[in-house]
Design brief:
The chain has 57 residues and is an alpha+beta fold. It has one domain. The chain is built from 2 helices and 2 strands; from the N terminus they run αββα. The radius of gyration is 17 Å and the shape is extended. This is LSM domain-containing protein. It comes from Heterostelium pallidum (strain ATCC 26659 / Pp 5 / PN500).
Length: 57
Amino acid sequence: MSAAVQQQHQSNSNNNNNAQFNFFKMCIGRPVVVKLNNGVEYRGMNEQPKSSNEKQK
């Protein structure tokens, strides 16, 4: 793979990661439904994960 192709691939990957991060950031504090492939649904509020420092308290 050429350097230009590798750079484009990395750029696309970074854009995808940013889009996913922004999507989940918008969902914090909102009700969510997660449906698994086997049909099981989980419902609840999307909360921001606690940092490792907060977990120790």
